[in-house]
TrEMBL record:
UniProt xrefs under Gene3D superfamilies: Zinc/RING finger domain, C3HC4 (zinc finger) (3.30.40.10)
SMART domains: RING
GO cellular component: nucleus
Signal peptide span: none
Phylogenetic classification of the source organism: Eukaryota, Viridiplantae, Streptophyta, Embryophyta, Tracheophyta
Domain RING-type as annotated: residue spans: 215-257
PANTHER family: ENOS INTERACTING PROTEIN, NITRIC OXIDE SYNTHASE-INTERACTING PROTEIN
Entry protein name: E3 ubiquitin-protein ligase CSU1
Length: 305
């Protein structure tokens, strides 16, 4: 039985829709698995199990060393940009003063020539020296019109006449931001958090790399499927159910009996598990279009509509 000609015809001067689909044209979607999601107890900077974990007010978890190095690096970068901006302002001021001085000199020269007439620069006609230091046959005398034309000429083939775009340094922001979000972050806004480690008999036989944590209230093993809440007053971490049921009502930590208020309950940010209807950004999208005349695909992120 002969096959459909429209599905196998490839002698056209353009790609058909079916040929594009076979080459992978269009938006490619892929569901992210568990291995593609950051665990709840991993640092958002080094992506390793947290050491001396600290959290911001938005619930992003970092290693103490990582976040402090990040904030110090941001402050040094702000100082460098501020110094460059101050230097540029100083240079702009000097250029403006020099421009005013040249303008004043031109006005005085024009006034002097108008009142006293133009005088020759050299009395000896056989020894004419221009501003470039040449004289005699090597002398090249350019008129004011030619000098202005050379100064404003946009000749890209001449290195000396190539126009240069002035680089402007904008005034930098003086605030340090959270590397995981765009909100302002200071060292005083960070607070240490404490996970309750599982100390059962089976867990004691495990290695230090296989640590698991539990909620100190309901003793449920903490995973990425459980929403977590940290107390900014003491740093203990509970599951969201226990935090809403006990801490929000009793206003006291169940571990250390330290008082806490509703504003001290900070939901911790975490990645999903790859399963449906849990977390955000669990589906990777890429738009693939065909290269012009090459048959290869160029990949760019899909635009949200």
């Amino acid at each position: 039985m002969p096959q459909r000609h429209s599905k196998n015809n490839n002698d056209l001067a353009y790609f058909t829709y079916d040929e594009k689909k076979k080459l992978g044209y269009g938006t490619q979607r892929e569901r992210l698995g568990k291995d593609s999601i950051k665990p709840f107890d991993s640092c958002s900077l080094c992506l390793k199990p947290v050491i001396d974990p600290m959290s911001c007010q938005k619930g992003h978890i970092f290693c103490k060393e990582c976040i402090l190095e990040c904030l110090v690096a941001q402050k040094k970068d702000i100082q460098r940009k501020t110094a460059a901006h101050a230097m540029q302002q100083k240079q702009d001021k000097e250029d403006e003063e020099e421009k005013l001085a040249l303008q004043k000199a031109r006005e005085l020269d024009a006034f002097d020539q108008q009142n006293h007439g133009a005088l020759p620069q050299y009395s000896d006609k056989n020894y004419n020296r221009d501003k470039n230091g040449f004289h005699g046959a090597n002398s090249v005398k350019a008129t004011l019109y030619e000098e202005e034309a050379l100064r404003t000429m946009k000749a890209f083939w001449l290195p000396s006449a190539t126009p240069e775009a002035p680089s402007k340094v904008e005034a930098p922001s003086t605030r340090t931001t959270c590397p995981e979000g765009s909100e302002e972050l200071k060292m005083k806004n960070l607070f240490p958090i404490h996970f309750t480690e599982d100390t059962t008999t089976e867990q004691k036989k495990a290695t230090s790399l296989d640590k698991s944590y539990i909620c100190p209230s309901c003793k449920v093993t903490i995973t990425n499927t459980i929403a977590l809440v940290a107390l900014s007053s003491c740093g203990h971490v509970f599951c969201k159910k226990c935090a809403d049921k006990f801490m929000a009502v009793d206003k006291v930590c169940l571990v250390c009996n330290k008082g806490c208020k509703k504003r001290n309950l900070v939901p911790l940010e975490k990645g999903g598990t790859g399963f449906s209807a849990h977390g955000d950004n669990l589906e990777a999208k890429e738009f693939k279009h065909l290269g012009s005349g090459s048959g290869l695909g160029l990949v760019r992120p899909a635009m949200k509509t």
